[in-house]
Write a structure and sequence with these properties.
single chain; 591 residues; alpha+beta; Butyryl-CoA Dehydrogenase, subunit A, domain 3; Tetracycline Repressor, domain 2; elongated
């Protein structure tokens, strides 16, 4: 491709061809081209086979946009994407921990006189492309000196207090750098809410490893092809060629295994699963394959006159750059070893790619931010339907980024389940004390329960509409195994709520206050009468609590009257008297 040995020129060629925006993962950028992580991995692997430094530049550009897309404001997202796509700047560069390969934030941050003081050092691999800004993750310092929550910032390269040192590789084809920072950043440089970037940081570093694994895989394949081509040339020593062929066969097997792990991790990322451990495994295998393959290729090609020296130099430069970016293989092995000893990261990949949700049962006294998210989500799902609603819609209603929602809920499914859980818990909190009040006669208790339920419907209309529609109908076939377990938990809450009313009806029947009837059958029309409020009720201007009380009285009275079965078809005439007798009776009265 044009500019294969010049990463900046290669990136510009991809920009002009419109490839950059198409390769932005759809799960990481609202305005991206909709590429899957699997497609991105394939593109990086293929590009690394012919132009490994250009692949490094592409990975740097794409990965740098991920935290901005997840946490940034609309202005920050637009600036990042426009710089990447339209060529009026380069994408921000992800700053990694100076201890290469570590997932910890490279910076420390503390609030100082209204601004954020960032201090620390990091490492970056520029791949020959200028870095106008850095995406920086920073951990908050606590009183005990330990790191607490993490925040994300986008810091201009030439901001006061930023000291960058870059080292050029052979023939200027690659560079790697270190950065020291002591910067006062105002709120405009903060990505998303303060202290809520830890999960996005972990996910971003995992994607960074996935991109590095793809490049290492492409580099190993290219080196394999170079060695195979040289071994097939005439004039090679027969015995040495046979030994090299055996080594080459072993490398080919290792490359195949590494690629299987790479694409398995990419597919897991596309499914929204946590790939922290999977990406570490893929990167470790791919790096070891690339290292073995490059060493063997150097031995095989030697000083053979047919070898493209510039291409070999590019391979070696790319390997040095990747080692700088990803860290030594020992770092990935240590990460995997920690997961084996203390498996806090799921090796099955059933944790989320993006931030994990808060899934513990919630009470009405939940934190304000969570309550606001659930209220906005209930309104959005009610007004637009489940399929048409996106996390961006909910974020826009709240005036926050999608990343703020991801901090609490890792997917739209989990957010919907949380909304349903909340309405069930609110209903149980309201009805249970009435149902347990033994000072009330059973029928009065049932009436008050029906009245309270009617008020709940009017007070939390969006929530109650979702509950009436049924959670299974909304999520049928949309949940994975882990989500199914959480879904079953809220279905249990729903059944428990219905059982409270079944028991109340049974008690009224046993007390002789209601005629004999099947309580489980009777509860269905009872709820039908009360829940139909969701179809016609809308708060009116000037409506008061007393107005809603009157509506609740009428609804509850109507529903309980149905249970008394005052009208029964077996004791009512099946047809009306004929018209003639009616006239006769009227005539008799007239005389």
């Amino acid at each position: 491709m044009p500019g294969a040995l010049d990463p900046a020129a290669a990136l510009q060629s991809m920009r002009e061809a419109g490839l950059l925006v198409k390769l932005l993962p759809s799960r990481s950028h609202k305005r991206g081209g909709g590429a899957s992580f699997t497609s991105l991995v394939a593109a990086l692997e293929g590009l690394a086979m012919g132009a490994p430094l250009a692949a490094a530049a592409l990975a740097q550009a794409v990965i740098g946009t991920v935290p901005v897309a997840q946490l940034g404001s609309a202005r920050q997202k637009a600036a990042s994407l426009d710089a990447l796509v339209h060529g009026d700047g380069a994408a921000p560069v992800l700053l990694r921990n100076a201890d290469a390969g570590a997932d910890e934030a490279p910076m420390r941050v503390a609030l100082q006189q209204g601004d954020w003081l960032l201090e620390g050092g990091g490492r970056w691999g520029a791949a020959g492309v200028e870095a106008p800004a850095f995406v920086v993750f920073a951990s908050h310092r606590q009183a005990n000196g330990e790191s607490g929550q993490a925040s994300a910032f986008i810091i201009p390269r030439f901001a006061a207090g930023v000291s960058v040192h870059a080292t050029s590789g052979p023939a200027g084809m690659a560079s790697e750098g270190t950065l020291q920072m002591q910067v006062l950043a105002d709120g405009s440089l903060l990505l998303g809410p303060a202290g809520q970037a830890a999960s996005v940081m972990a996910a971003t570093f995992a994607l960074d490893r996935l991109a590095s694994a793809a490049q290492a895989s492409g580099l190993a394949i290219a080196a394999y092809e170079e060695a195979s081509k040289t071994l097939g040339l005439a004039g090679s020593d027969a015995q040495e060629a046979e030994r090299s062929s055996l080594k080459l066969a072993h490398c080919a097997t290792a490359i195949s295994a590494a690629r299987m792990m790479l694409y398995e991790a990419a597919r897991a990322a596309d499914s929204g699963e946590d790939i922290r451990l999977a990406s570490a495994k893929a990167l470790l295998c791919a790096m070891e394959c690339a290292e073995r393959m490059l060493n063997l290729t150097v031995q095989v090609v030697g000083g053979h006159p047919s070898v493209d020296a510039a291409r070999m130099h590019q391979f070696l430069a790319a390997r040095r750059l990747q080692q700088s970016v990803a860290g030594p293989a020992e770092r990935q092995a240590a990460r995997i070893a920690r997961a084996i000893v203390q498996p806090s990261i799921s090796s099955r990949g059933d944790e989320p790619l993006m931030p994990k949700a808060t899934t513990e049962p919630r009470t009405p006294e939940m934190p304000d931010r969570v309550s606001e998210i659930l209220d906005a989500a209930a309104d959005a799902f009610d007004q637009q339907g489940y399929d048409a609603t996106t996390l961006d819609h909910i974020g826009d209603a709240l005036g926050v980024t999608k990343g703020s929602i991801y901090y609490h809920y890792r997917s739209k499914v989990e957010l919907f389940v949380a909304v349903y859980r909340r309405v069930m818990e609110m209903n149980l909190e309201t009805i249970s004390p009435i149902a347990e009040d033994e000072a009330l006669l059973p029928l009065e208790r049932l009436y008050r329960m029906a009245h309270a339920h009617s008020l709940q419907v009017m007070k939390h209309l969006s929530y109650q509409r979702l509950a009436v529609h049924g959670i299974e109908a909304q999520l049928m076939g949309r949940v994975n195994e882990d989500q199914r377990a959480k879904l079953n938990e809220v279905i249990v809450l729903r059944d428990r709520y219905q059982e409270i009313f079944v028991r109340a009806i049974s008690q009224a029947v046993e007390a002789g206050e209601l005629p004999q009837q099947d309580a489980r059958m009777a509860v269905k029309p009872l709820f039908g009468a009360l829940n139909c409020t969701t179809m016609w009720y809308q708060p009116r201007p000037g409506e008061t609590a007393a107005d809603r009380e009157r509506i609740g009285d009428q609804l509850a009275g109507f529903a309980i009257s149905g249970l008394t079965q005052s009208y029964r078809s077996d004791n009512v005439p099946t047809s009306r008297p004929t018209a003639a007798p009616q006239r006769a009776r009227r005539s008799a009265k007239a005389h």
